[in-house]
Task: structure prediction
Amino acid sequence: MRWNLPVSEMPTTWFNVVPHLSKPLEPPLHPGTRQPLGPEDLSPLFPMALIGQEVTTEPTVEIPGEVIDVLRLWRPTPLVRAVRLEKALGTPARIYFKDESVSPAGSHKPNTAVPQAFYNKAEGVARLTTETGAGQWGSALSFASAIYGLECMVYMVRASYEQKPYRRVLMETWGGRAVPSPVDDPSHPGSLGTAISDAVKDAASRADTHYSLGSVLNHVLLHQTIIGQEAQAQLARAGETRPDVVIGCCGGGSNLGGISLPFVPDGDVRLLAVEPASCPTLTAGKLEYDYGDAAGYAPLLLMYTLGHDFIPPSIHAGGLRYHGDAPIISNLVSTGRMEAVAYPQTKTFDAALTWARSQGTVPAPETGHAIRAVIDEALAAKEAGKEKVILFNYSGHGLLDLSAYDSYLQGELKD
Amino acid sequence: MRWNLPVSEMPTTWFNVVPHLSKPLEPPLHPGTRQPLGPEDLSPLFPMALIGQEVTTEPTVEIPGEVIDVLRLWRPTPLVRAVRLEKALGTPARIYFKDESVSPAGSHKPNTAVPQAFYNKAEGVARLTTETGAGQWGSALSFASAIYGLECMVYMVRASYEQKPYRRVLMETWGGRAVPSPVDDPSHPGSLGTAISDAVKDAASRADTHYSLGSVLNHVLLHQTIIGQEAQAQLARAGETRPDVVIGCCGGGSNLGGISLPFVPDGDVRLLAVEPASCPTLTAGKLEYDYGDAAGYAPLLLMYTLGHDFIPPSIHAGGLRYHGDAPIISNLVSTGRMEAVAYPQTKTFDAALTWARSQGTVPAPETGHAIRAVIDEALAAKEAGKEKVILFNYSGHGLLDLSAYDSYLQGELKD
Result:
């Protein structure tokens, strides 16, 4: 069962959670001086519109009409009730999901790539740089750059560049350029840290170029709140008052923030972050100021972190391999407004296979983490003999991750 | 701009074009006796329900409720106006497409895989066999088999099995089993002909097993007419009286038939088939009785054919590499009701790239053929300074065909 929102009812503003936080956010610090950052520190890398959104305390931010026009290529995304999964589990829970896999890049990432490209274009920037691991974010920004006629240069972790050619081809199909990172050491396998360094260095060295980030920052989570706002309108159409729990997987926090932040003001709604046991930032990290990148070039953020030199094992859910978390998500967890749980990857692939064989679609390994928690919540409802309304974010499809499924099916996956 | 049809308005019957043909269809002939086939000849391979649909002259056939329940996992599919492509071309034409890429298997194929699996299950069959080239059909049938709890055995052309592991993994993710064909000669690269032989032989040798075909036959095209019927309802919502032309790519003819057959009775609507210049069945083949497979085990069908021993060059649009065409499509072309055009593959990839960089999604190479013709029709409208309403079938996405895009972008593609 699906609830399609009419295009005319797509939200026209983003939801800002900042006024609803029980504890104020702490400012980012300059990596050199460790003093709070000012707009002038960020302007070589970001357009003023995004810097403004990063610090705004207004309850809503208007979405520009030119951005809405592009988002409408695939939005509003459907809200779907996973009836076949419910039957397979024999649960009294009603399970709903937002299907963000329907975007051109196959995930929620274009929700922020499009406005970021738009604001940069509007301020006269001709070229964007970014980093990418497995390629989800790099392909989303390549797509958005194609739409606005921007050049897009993606520094891709060398190991992924060599092992996962499909996402590179996807970027090139949209006219983006991907190069392996680190650029100055062809024998180095690379990491998100080296790729951020390459991308920031490039952007800082050219007046026509800005840098773009796909998660963690406040303005990125802001852009993603269109997901949760649509879900609220669609749940009402489905006859539900509210979800009992909202679930999303969490790497940097952008898809989780997107679906959950609009529910923060409603204290009757539980919020649940799901992370990999191999990179357990929220469940085992420390809340402290840490660098956003491995090399220490990026600002310090107050967040749950495993340490900026932590190198997560190379699990297949590449999008969840980040040493820190969005300051907003960290804030919510530290105040108890949001819960967090961690799973080893074989358990998440087990859940993903249950999903594929009941609901029919193949989820991204990242999304498999959310599905694992959804199934456990639904089984708990069955155990308790209680109704429960579960909402989660189907953040992306797994069609470019089939080698991971192959490893799992062959019994080669390790936790 | 998109027009979503409410789930409650999904068609509940399939449209049968047979009563609307200006010339009757000729019967299939037995490959041994060359006499018209009877139901008893087909019953070892197909359930009686499908044999009945193959020969029915009723104007509509009811879709079983259990099939509708499953089709609703992704149907109705959106009708979308390709506004950004129109702008990129500067055309006065209005271009609409049905987005069949949103199905779990990423193409229109599940529209028939689901009812075929359902009818076999209903008649007590426990196992299905089929052939697949690049894997689109094999993955669709694996998905449908997972839904109904059937075993699914896919004989996959050995060259594809070895070169394109991703679609094999997709089949296995749904619980299907794929083996390279021919099974008895590991040094043979295989062909659709050898794979059909393996699949038919397997099904004929086991009482619990039937054979399933993904295109060409009347009942397959019948199941696909849900596409064109939905499009008619959605075009009306978009304020269009009728399309001037309906376009689809054509291999066996199932996606083309699906979108175009419901328009056959309206003589003001042009119908256009698009095929590869390297396998020009409709534009350069002969209309005659020929075997459905290379080995001559399958029935003879009256169709445009290049000869059952014709081996098409290995272009990337694997779904269009068939020596013949559906008898219904052949009938429509031979009577002048449908037109046909052929394009070399580089021109279709050029069109696919124009699409990806304006509309944002990456089409299957097969779908790129339809887009090539759409662009040429739109440019002709621009040249003539005339409005025109174009409808085409976006039959599938190209996310598992990115190596083909890589070849094109590297300049390595040959016609």
Remarks:
- The mean pLDDT of chain B is 95.
- The two ends of chain B are 35 Å apart (CA to CA).
- The longest helix of chain B spans residues 365-384.
- Chain B touches chain A at residues 1-2, 4, 6-7, 72-74, 84, 102, 104, 106, 143, 146-147, 165-166, 169-170, 172-175, 353, 356-357, 359-362, 399-400, 402-403, 405-406, 409 (CB under 8 Å).
